[in-house]
Amino acid sequence: MKKGLLYPILWIILQNLLSCEQASPTRILNPSKDTLILSADYKKAEQFQNDFQNDSAFQYFNKVTILAKDSLEAAMAYNKMAILQNDAGDYFGSQESIIASLKLLNNQKKRDHYCLFSNYNELGFINLNLKNFEKAAYYFDEALKFVPRDEFHKVTTLNNKALAYQKKKDYAKAITIFESIIEQSKKNPIEYARILSNLAKTKWLQDSSYFAKQELLTAFQIRKENKSSWGLNASYGQLADYYAKSQPDSAFYYANALYHIARYLKSPDDELSALSKLILLSDHEASKQYFKQHQLLNDSLQTARNNAKNQFALIRFNTKQHEANNLILQKENAETRLRIIWWQLALVIGSIITITGFILYRRKKQQAIREQQLRLSQKVHDKVANKVYSIMSEVEHKGVPNRAILLYKLNYVYKQSRDISYDQPGNDWQDFQQSVAELLESFASDTIRISSVGNSQELWRKIPPSVKEELSIIMEELMTNMKKHSSAQNVVVKFVQKEKGVEIQYTDDGIGFPGNFRYGNGLSSTENRIQSIGGRIIFDSDPGKGLKIQLFIPTE
């Protein structure tokens, strides 16, 4: 062999002895789906993964991480993305995906445990590829905290941990773990063959004189009987290494078998491992050919992995860019919706204000009408009914007065009625003294004697016309009540000038108010009227002994 070719060949052999020659750890590819209904995108991603269309699988798993309604499904999608990235040699990208998955999981939720188990197992696998063997063992220990309750998963995880110690060359720890699980693994022939061959290989690495042939061949036979292609792939590599020094021909046979089964399994890493062994075990001419194949395959694999890394990064970037654009669009849509809502709200509020205003206006108008009706009704009662009653009382007890006087009085009532219908003010009360005298006289009869004291022009000089009008109505109401209810024979009305007004003292010798007496509409109206002009009224009644009423009318 030429010296120029020797160094690159030895470099290739060294690289593959450090990276590809050891048995691979067992990977958990399917987190638990028992409590989860998977989306159509997740199932489609899995189908692409099974068909080795990794770019499409990664794209759909990434889509699931954005659209998934269940955090567990998103976490599982990140786990699958990490596996695809790890296989492509994108170890740091794979770690990022695992961390994203872990952030979506809760250690306290049992439904999340299988995915947690798978994540930590994959982190161990990633660190094996990065040659961080101590950290790999740590992550396999973390995976054991969430291992499902079956021996298979526990055994496979301990096998992975033992391989981490084997690659660290801590053979004693690795052997201890392998020996602790080999009996449990016998229930599963494929797993038993894996651990048996790993244990034999580790003992041989620890002590090159160890006779590992029988155990390696036993594992090989079990794998052959169970048609385990990946198991045979591992056995061929282990047997080629074992026979490399003692039986080169046998080593060449197993290395060649490894090359062919690796091509069948489409495992470029194992194909490179087989070629590196064939380079070492072949003659000069054959070595040159295997070397060329190794170079071409290695370059092709590195290019493919770099492309895969870039493609994964591009998918992630495009997804984030799309997500950012969606966020901008959502923001714009939200702002538009908000403007529409504000306009709708303003329209609703405007409508409510308009309707409320209309209702209030209607109510106010109706209230005004009712108040006007009540006011007119009160005027009819005060100015017409009481005056008519006064005329009737006079006719009843004094006979029909002179025709001219009767016409005068009826004409007065007519004017009052007309003024009410036009809602105009009535008498200006120029001669209020005479009006009071006539009023009191009209209620006198053969059985009722009415006397007045102090009714003079000077007395009423300072009283405003509006107050005179109200006072006339009040006095007429009191005299009407006297006539109807008191049974009085003598009535005295005394008018007294006071400093700030006029005091009217009414006294009769009638029956007074009974003990359970309640004011009727007339007396209630009288009280309201006296209060409206700032005056006051006091009733003093002793049942059976007459009635006294004291009124005070202010001049201001």
Can you put this structure into words, describing what you see?
It contains 19 helices and 5 strands. The chain is of the alpha+beta class. Among the domains are: 343-426; 430-554, Histidine kinase-like ATPase, C-terminal domain (Heat Shock Protein 90). The chain has a 5-stranded mixed sheet, with helices on one face. The protein is rod-shaped. The protein starts with a helix and ends with a strand.
Summarize the structure.
This protein is an alpha+beta fold and 556 residues long. 69% of the residues lie in helices and 6% in strands.
Keywords:
5 strands; alpha+beta; about 550 residues; Heat Shock Protein 90; single chain; rod-shaped; 19 helices; disordered N terminus
Mean pLDDT: 82
- Gyration radius (Cα, Å) is 58 Å
The CATH homologous superfamily of the domain at 430-554: Histidine kinase-like ATPase, C-terminal domain
Helix content: 55-70%
Helix count, per DSSP? 19
Tell me, briefly, the overall form: rod-shaped
Separation of termini? 139 Å
Largest sheet: 5 strands, mixed
Please state the second-level CATH architecture of the domain at 430-554. Answer: 2-Layer Sandwich
Q: Taking strands numbered 1, 2, ... along the chain, how are they ordered across the largest sheet?
A: 1-2-3-5-4
The SSE order reads: HHHHHHHHHHHHHHHHHEHEEHEE
CATH T-level topology of the domain at 430-554: Heat Shock Protein 90
Total beta strand runs:
5
Counting helices, strands and paired strands, the structural category is alpha+beta
Strand content: 5-15%
Broad CATH class of the domain at 430-554: Alpha Beta
pLDDT < 50 runs, ≥5 residues: 1-22
